[in-house]
Amino acid sequence: MGKIVTQCPSCASTKLHVTKIECLGCNTIFEGKFDIPSLLKLPEEDLQFIFDFVKCSGSLKEMAAKQNVSYPTLRNRLNALIDNLESLEVKKIGSKEKILQLLEEGKISAKDAAKMLHKL
Question: pTM above 0.70?
């Protein structure tokens, strides 16, 4: 079984929804519009990085040793992953108006709002 498709093979759009989920245990089928979680939208190498990071209890020093790379190299990789996750979050929110609404409601900080607006 492959990974869920998160980009349209025809037009490359990432505006996809899952419409059917089936339980292999009891054959129950759920149909509707289900969002794809942000983590599943990450490339395979980013998912592997997160998996390894958790297995190393968040120790970049231990990960660097296991992957035979320097700590600064691994730290840069983590920073790139964080930027990618933040971009996915901004895309999920979708618009300047929505970001400002979240700020007004106190759901995000002014600093976070500024970062999100910058990424639009």
Answer: no
